[in-house]
Design goal:
The protein is of the alpha+beta class. The protein has eleven helices and 18 strands. Helix 1 packs across helix 5, helix 2 runs parallel beside helix 3 and helix 4 packs across helix 5. The radius of gyration is 21 Å and the shape is globular.
């Protein structure tokens, strides 16, 4: 009852309804058994459903008719081919430019493969490949329809912001004499912030809660074969079950090198979900700061360069015992044959700012926590939320430090994403140049 009381004690409503807001959701749970994404060690498709998956949309319109739509998904990640197609259709249908449409994925590892994400992780047979491609096609339609439903639900609203903290995320880059490995590093960098945006109707009733956390959604490890949203899904469900009528939406922040601790069991995922939901409720029960119009937005696609590679690199890799490496090598050699070797990858950076009250920076890929910590230092006067896993999840995005240290996030993960190898050491500065540009375009000064 304490949790419910906190939710019912949502923040003061003494400020005007300066916005309109609309919310919508769609169940995106696969209807049949499907190959699950995230763990290369998996050997078979899903075996039932532990908890449904959802996509949710929050549409916001300011007093100047400026709109943004935030879409959250209980998925491993949305590739650019899907988000670009949806964005083009939304702009044509609803006159909403690309900068004002944000897609984020929870990165659950107990959800379906979404093609072409993690293209060389599995060697799927014809039936499994067909199921995955059909799911991705239907997902595209569902997300486009979802956005339209949120826009059709616009009604006067108040927005407010608060921030809490919870500590179940731990840095997973464990230093060993032989190098960095995946494990636990209690001394490693973390960002335990829990940002919360509350949306109320003009009547004061809560309608939606947008909250985030920087932690891999991997409580459930590779031996689990039932579909679920992991801790992020459970956190959303906990809030919604305790407060009917509220749509809870989760943003995954810069959790590329963060893991939930402990992990491995369903009870761990339930506990982390309840812990996160309880912190969101605590924030909502306290003093929140109102958000004001106007809404400004900026979107930029930069390019990240890969370290030098040659055809010989992948000819040698064909002999490797790792089947993922062999699949990657074959793909890279095919591109060499077509005279189109991958030297760079497009990289989206987005900023959405509510007056001078809050800025959401949305970065593509599996972004390590260093980016959020640095952004907060570079813009100390700005109330800032830095999300990864946004608009495209093409691979890990290591910082210069992580790249120099090596390990999974910097090197090995590229095998399963079908990328040719690590980035150059300019990767972090290239991303921050784009961050500064988008921040400047929405009016943020350093």
């Amino acid at each position: 009852m304490k949790f419910l009381a906190l939710l019912l004690g949502f923040s003061s409503i003494g400020w005007p309804a300066d916005f309109k807001a609309g919310v919508a959701r769609v169940n995106i749970t696969p209807k049949t058994s499907i190959w699950m994404s995230g763990y290369a060690a998996r050997t078979k498709p899903s075996e039932g459903v532990l908890a449904d998956l959802f996509a949710k949309a929050l549409a916001i319109e300011d007093s100047r008719k400026g709109r943004v739509v935030i879409v959250t998904t209980d998925l491993i990640g949305l590739p650019r081919v899907i988000t670009d197609e949806i964005a083009a259709r939304v702009e044509k249908q609803y006159r909403i430019e690309r900068a004002r449409l944000l897609f984020n994925s929870s990165h659950t590892h107990t959800g379906p493969v979404v093609r072409p994400n993690l293209s060389t992780m599995y060697n799927l047979g014809a039936v499994d490949d067909k199921n995955v491609r059909e799911y991705s096609r239907q997902l595209t339609e569902d997300l486009f329809t979802l956005i339209g439903a949120a826009l059709g639900d616009l009604a006067p609203a108040r927005l407010a912001f608060g921030e809490g903290s919870t500590g179940f995320a731990i840095n997973r880059r464990e230093p060993r004499p032989e190098g960095v490995r995946l494990g636990t590093n209690p001394k490693g960098a973390v960002d335990h912030a829990v940002p919360v945006v509350e949306v109320r109707g003009a009547d004061g009733r809560p309608r939606a809660v947008l909250f985030g956390y920087a932690c891999h959604n991997t409580t459930l490890t590779g031996q689990h074969y039932r579909i679920s949203g992991d801790y992020a899904g459970y956190a959303q469900a906990e809030i919604e079950n305790r407060h009917p009528g509220v749509t809870a939406m989760f943003l995954l922040l810069c959790g590329g090198d963060q893991n939930p601790n402990p992990r491995g069991e369903i009870d761990n995922a339930l506990d982390h979900g309840k812990t996160l939901a309880a912190e969101v409720a605590r924030v909502l029960g306290g003093k929140l700061e109102p958000l004001r119009p106007p809404i400004r937005a900026a979107f930029k696609v930069t390019e990240l360069a890969f370290a030098l590679h040659t055809r010989e690199t992948f000819e040698k890799e064909l002999q490797d015992r790792n089947p993922g490496k062999v699949r990657r090598a074959r793909e890279m050699l095919r591109l060499y044959d077509e005279r189109q070797p991958i030297r760079r990858t497009p990289y989206p950076v987005q900023a959405i700012r509510f007056n001078k009250d809050l800025t959401i920076v949305a970065l593509g890929g599996e972004v390590v926590v260093d980016y959020a910590l640095r952004a907060k230092k570079e813009f100390p006067k700005e109330r800032l939320v830095v999300a990864g896993y946004s608009n495209d999840v093409m691979c890990y995005i290591p910082s210069r430090r992580v790249l120099q240290e090596g390990g999974y996030e910097a090197v090995d993960s590229m095998i399963y994403y079908g990328m040719p190898g690590p980035f150059t050491e300019e990767v972090e500065e290239t991303v921050f140049e784009a961050i500064r540009e988008t921040m400047k375009r929405v009016g943020v000064k350093r």
